[in-house]
Amino acid sequence: MKKRSDRNSITAEVSQYRDSNMGLAEWPSTVPRPDGDVAADVDAIFNGIVATRPASAWSSFDVARAAQLAQIMYLIGRDTETLVRTGTLIRSERNKPIPNPVLYALEKTGHQASALARQLGLTIQTNKAGDPRDQMASNNQFEQKYGRALANGNASVVDAGPAELPSAIAHLIGNKNDV
User: Fold this and answer.
1) Where in the chain are the domains?
2) Which of 112, 114, 156, 164 has the fewest C-beta atoms under 10 angstroms from its C-beta?
3) Do 62 and 95 touch, CB atoms closer than 8 A?
4) What gap in Å lies between CA 89 and CA 68, rounded to an integer?
5) Are 63 and 28 in contact (CB under 8 A)?
6) CA pair distance 84, 86, nearest whole angstrom
7) For position 158, what pLDDT does the model report?
8) Which residues have a Cβ under 8 Å from the Cβ of 167 and sit 6 or more positions away?
9) Does residue 104 come out as left (phi exceeding 0), alpha (psi in the -120 to 50 range) or beta?
């Protein structure tokens, strides 16, 4: 069995301090860098992305993805400004209202940004199961606190016997002998 390091140890603190002094990951040579005023904005977004982890934790592939994400995030911001200025509906050549084509561009780039953020691990985990280790730890804590019958989720308070219930719950449902 692999020995798990203690996340709160002095060694972890020293490595975090060392990583924080290394600075941010550099722009990858495999991704073209924008020019002019756009470069400053994209660099600011890129630095915000790579600041989420120490420089030593970024692989070259992840840095390239972060650079792509920064460029897409810049495009989303620019297109959003255009959409706010022009509105969601525009007039066609026949003077009929039609959806602004910028909406489609925003939708496409938004999906790309979401995919890259997921690949980089920048999004929070929202599924019910989560990490199985965290779920098991949560179940163990619940079982210790409230008993095995309730921890599995398939028994209700009424179905569990008095021996499986904490004394406060047993008292609430009328089993005063278990208090």
Assistant:
1) 24-120, 132-178
2) 156
3) no
4) 30
5) yes
6) 6
7) 47
8) 178, 179
9) alpha
Side chain identity, residue 76: I
> Which residues in 122-160 are b (16+ Cβ under 10 Å) and which e?
beeeeeeeeeeeeeeeeeeeeeeebbebbbeeeeeeeeb
- Taking only the tens place, the pLDDT of each residue in 18-28 is 665 566 788 88
Query: In this structure, what token pair is assigned to residue 55?
Result: 């420089």
- Locus of tokens 């790309």: 112
Task: Report whether 178 contacts 163 (CB < 8 A).
Answer: yes
Encoding tokens for residue 143? 């079982």
Please write the tens of the pLDDT for every residue from 134-157.
Answer: 666 666 666 666 665 554 554 444
Q: How many CB atoms lie within 10 A of CB 118?
A: 10
Nearest to 117 by CA among 22, 51, 49: 49
Tell me how far apart the alpha carbons of residues 58 and 39 are, in angstroms, rounded to a whole number. Answer: 21
8 Å CB contact between 27 and 33: yes
